[in-house]
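tool_call: predict_structure(chain=1)
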Amino acid sequence: MTTPRMKAVVATGYGAPDVLQLQEVEKPTPAADEVLVKVMASAATQAEAMMRTGRPYYNRLFLGFSKPKHDIPGTCFAGVIEAVGENVHRFQVGDRVFGVTALGFGTNAEYVAVSIQDVILPMPENMGFAEAAPYCDGHLTSYNFLTEVANLQPGQKVLINGASGALGTAAVQIARYLGAEVTAVCSGKNEGLVRSLGAHHTIDYTKEDFTRSSERYDVVFDTIGKSSFGQAKRVLTETGQYLSPVLKIAHLLKVLWTSLFGTQKARFDATGLKDPGKLREMLSAVTNIYRAGKLTTVIDRQFPLEKLAEAHRYIDTGRKKGNVVMVSA
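tool_result:
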């Protein structure tokens, strides 16, 4: 009997985008508590581009030392359930779903098997696959940092650095939805975009250093990790918080130090490593913001699956606006 096969992008090692190669691999068979999803769209993210390089080297403690232990990249997905395991009752064949596999990876493929104990939810009826796929990247991460980490309140002032990226475009909308006064830092050519998403004020980083501003913010959310707590504390209020999702040793040391000393705080959280139940709860909350008409997915470019290496090369240029999405043919 012939084993079913599928197309998938395989990371043959760590390095430049050329390590990502389209291959035919064995099609997964769902276990008793899993569903088999035909992937209609998946995200190509900045975080995945960094993981592709295997740097910083301490990331290999989680990813694999000499090469990725999960060789099919991709974590975010949107698609249609093709098969269900014998113990699955809350999903049926034909359901439109979206979610994230976190450190399980595997979504840059034609099919992925996902446990119903992981992060998978029904898609809203009027949401498209390309729009849904990035929700567990920028949308979910930004929601976590602004609500769970910072506890952002109505009327507070928040500055979002990297406001035109995947996390930034989501953060601007979520912060505005939460009732904050939003200042967005981006290049001049993207000021119109972030204002259309709800930013009250903009700063063109090519002309002005936000850390030298006379304004004070309750929260600085550096979505791209280009500044530091030491630089940003000048523009924080007395009890202000500096947030960054970018894992750097220097930032983690500041997180530890400020947890013990001072009233200004540096914050970090690994959103993807949270309990799946908590992530499903947050994804549901984010979806409700979408249903309220207050959250949209900004898509810069779409690529077919076989062009994942090209998508990563584009991400590496640093010119990405919003999200890059891989779509099925």
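agent: The first helix runs from residue 46 to 53. Proceeding to next step.
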